[in-house]
Amino acid sequence: MKSLYSLDCLNFLSQETRAEVIENIRKNDLAHQEEHVLAVVELANELADVVGIIRPTERRRLLTAAFMHDIACHENRTYHHLIGGIRASVILLRNEQHIFTPEDIEEIRVLIAEHRASYSGPRSSVASQVLRLADMGRLDSERFGIRAIEHRYGQMSKEFALQETADYLISKFAPDGYAWITYPALGQQLYMKEIAAIKSLCADRDKLIAYLDDVYTYVEKKHGEIMC
Q: Which long-range contacts (CB under 8 A, 24 or more apart) does 136-141 make?
C-alpha cells in the first residue's frame, strides 16, 4: 500500500539508509508498516516544534529514531525495541557517520529502546517523551483501535480478533491501563479530551466490542479480505 506520508523531512539520511529501513518495515505486520512509521515521523516533527527541539542535531536524532523505531518488529515483537536499537546503530555506523557521532547514534539507540508504552523506566530526555507520544499517534477515539485490529487482521477469525483486541485495549487504555502509568505530561496537556473519551470507551467492554466491529469493517475495506 502506498504511504500517505512523505520522506522529505528525512532527506538528511542517505538513500541507502532510507531504502534499508523501508525494506525492513515492509516485512512488519499491517499495523507497523510504512504508513504508521512515517506518521510517527510527521507527528514527532510537529511535537518537536511544540517542545522546542530546534537544534538541527537534536531534531535529526529524534526523526531518525522515529523512522527506525519499528525496524525489528518482524523479527521479534516482544523485544523489537531492543533489537531495533541495535539494528539502527549498525546501519547508522555504516552509512551515516558523516552526520552522526557515535554519541548521537547511542542517543538514537536509547530513544528506540524507550519508545514503547510498556517501557516502565524513566525517560531519558524530552525527545524520548516526544517519540513515545508520536508512536501512540494523534489520539482520536474514533480511530485509535485501527492499528490494534490491523495487527491481528488476517491472522485469526474476526470474532477472535475482536475479543483479543478488546482484551488488549482494555489492559492498555482503560482508566487503570498500563499506557497511562508513564504517559508523558505533555500528552496529558495536548490530548486531555481525547484521553477521557478513550478511557470511557475502554471501561465498557460491550461498547468497545461494538466499536471494534465497525473498525474491523473499515480495515477489511482498506486492506481487502484476507483468508486466515
A: 136/179, 136/187, 137/36, 137/39, 137/40, 137/43, 138/43, 139/187, 139/191, 139/194, 139/195, 139/198, 140/194, 141/194, 141/197, 141/198, 141/201
Q: Are 75 and 83 in contact (CB under 8 A)?
A: yes
Q: Closest Cα partner for 129 from 57, 188, 86?
A: 188
How far apart CA 187 and CA 152 sit, in angstroms, is: 27
**Residues counted in the chain:** 228
Rg of the chain over Cα atoms, rounded to whole angstroms, equals 17
Residue with cell 531534531: 59
Q: With contact defined as beta carbons under 8 Å apart, do 67 and 13 qualify?
A: yes
| The C-alpha cell that represents 109 in the structure block | 539507540
pLDDT in tens, 85-94: 999 999 999 9
CB 48 within 8 A of CB 130: yes
Classified as helix, coil or strand, 76 is coil
* pLDDT-above-70 percentage for the chain: 96
Q: How confident is the model at residue 143 (pLDDT cuts 50, 70, 90)?
A: confident
Are 62 and 130 in contact, with CB atoms under 8 Å apart?
yes
The reported pTM is 0.82
CA distance 162 to 153: 10
Residue 6 pLDDT grade (very low, low, confident, very high; cuts 50, 70, 90): low
